[in-house]
Design a protein that fits this description.
Length: 218
């Protein structure tokens, strides 16, 4: 799935670049869609691989799915302010001699992004952006008699490249790639306890690809 989205994103940007050029003023817009993420969460992977009786080891990087929505507003001809929200889900299940241990990692990722317009030619536009957010993570663990969940929160930093290719005057295909670095704190349950008795953070880094639709107002 990750490879397919990256292929579609690249094709869309190339297709947009081949269409006739016509000047267009930047407009406020809303976007939504889904994508894939591919990231490393070292502390969580260590916990998963330490499952008693584990019959395998998970790699440091794992894939997940993301659903996103965003609103953007042009500050001038070259700069755009975007408020972005992503909901990410990653399953980290591992087989053991007892039963399959189920670990589900979810994150709420609100981020404020400033984008620089690299090209705006009416039928397509390309923007590069950087931003910062405060993300909220949740790890659910089900194994044998254990059924618990842990939460953490902290800052995250984003770099992205976004392209929009026109279907009409208002509706565009939205294509994007990004890199994210998260500094989320220690996971704790409702009683303030960690999953191992030691600090387990949600610090992570990874990349993502998105595919969706943008609707331009006016």
């Amino acid at each position: 799935m990750r490879e397919h989205l990256l292929t579609v994103a690249a094709f869309g940007l190339v297709l947009g670049a081949t269409l006739p050029l016509q000047a267009q003023t930047l407009r406020p817009a809303f976007a939504a869609g889904m994508g894939v993420i591919y990231r490393s969460v070292p502390d969580v992977i260590t916990v998963v691989n330490s499952t008693p009786g584990a019959l395998e080891r998970l790699p440091q990087f794992s894939a997940g799915v993301e659903f996103f929505a965003a609103a953007s507003y042009p500050l001038d001809a070259s700069w755009v302010l975007k408020v972005d929200y992503g909901y990410q889900i990653t399953s980290l299940n591992i087989a053991s001699v007892l039963e399959t241990a189920q670990f589900t990692l979810t994150q709420h990722c609100p981020t404020l992004v400033i984008q620089y317009v690299l090209s705006n030619q009416g039928v397509f536009n390309v923007k590069a952006g950087a931003g910062m957010g405060y993300h909220f993570g949740h790890l659910a663990k089900k194994f044998f008699y254990i059924d618990n969940s842990f939460s953490a929160q902290g800052p995250a930093f984003l770099a992205e490249l976004e392209g929009n290719t026109a279907f009409g005057d208002h509706l565009f295909a939205c294509l994007g790639v990004s890199a994210v670095w998260s500094l989320i704190g220690s996971l704790k349950d409702a009683a303030g306890l960690t999953s191992t008795g030691e600090a387990v953070t949600l610090n992570s880094h990874g990349v993502g690809a998105r595919l969706g639709f943008t609707y331009y107002l006016n």
